[in-house]
Amino acid sequence: MRAKQKFVALDEYEEGAVIQGLMLLRNEELESGGSDDFIGDLIIKVIRSPQRKARARDEAR
After folding, report:
1. CB atoms < 10 A from the CB of 61, how many?
2. What is the C-alpha end-to-end distance of the chain, expressed in Å?
3. What are the 10-residue block averages of pLDDT along the chain, 61 residues in total?
4. What pTM did the predictor assign?
């Protein structure tokens, strides 16, 4: 059985907001003495995700 994947298109501002939110969560986890491995891996995954060329929605045909 194949794992289900979700793809979300983010512009540079949305990507920055996601990374900033994950960093805040990671910092809270570190302050409480927890492990930040999962969150750190997730941050790296978001940063390294490939970019795809998107079609312009308002483009005339």
Report:
1. 2
2. 39
3. 86 94 94 90 91 70 55
4. 0.73
